[in-house]
Amino acid sequence: MIAYVGIGANLGEARANVADALARLAALDGSRLLAQSSAYRSAPIDSSGDDYINAVACIDTTMSARDLLVALQAIELAHGRERPYRNAPRTLDLDILLYNDERIDSASLQVPHPRMLERAFVLVPLLEIAPDIEVPGHGPARQFLSAVGGQIIERLN
Q1: Catalytic residue among 93, 101, 119, 132
Q2: Which among 108, 88, 9 has a CA at the least distance from the CA of 52?
Q3: What is the pTM of this model?
Q4: CA 79 to CA 71: how far, in whole Å?
């Protein structure tokens, strides 16, 4: 299964946390890192605190979507992730954006990620590594770029 994972952090050593998350994704059992975007800086949206460092990774995995979610949450916990309230600043945030062409809607997991098409910090790095990606139920991801054009995002590398 091909999965796209959104990565973000704005507490502590955010850039190092994002880089470590990419390394941990590459080392997941039954998975292989196929692509990773550049790192980007963006202001918090519906959140607070310092600017976020964001990236997107593409992995090939034998894990189910639920098992992948559990593995991502374990990586977050290893970085001291706390969830005191919705959209709180975080040491690391990992989200399954896409999982093949599946659509999942459960209490613990929604794929495609429900806000991915509203966030430049997701769309820009995603389109860097997958310029022709289609979002199940929505069409080409690139068609949503104009809607997030007012969100400031800066490529770091």
Answers
A1: 93
A2: 9
A3: 0.94
A4: 13
Question: Torsion angle, CA of 44/48/54/58, rounded to 10 degrees?
Answer: -100
18 CB burial (10 A radius; 0-12, 13-18, 19+): buried
Residue 105 is among the residues annotated as catalytic for this protein: no
Known active-site residue 15: no
Choice among 88-92, 103-107, 113-117 with the minimum mean pLDDT: 88-92
Q: Is 83 labeled as catalytic in the residue annotation?
A: no
The predicted-structure confidence for 11-32, as pLDDT tens digits, reads as follows 889 999 999 999 999 999 999 9
Report which of 69, 73, 55 is spatially closest to residue 6, judged by C-alpha positions.
55
Specify whether 24 is catalytic: no
Selecting among 24, 81, 105, 155, the annotated active-site residue is 81
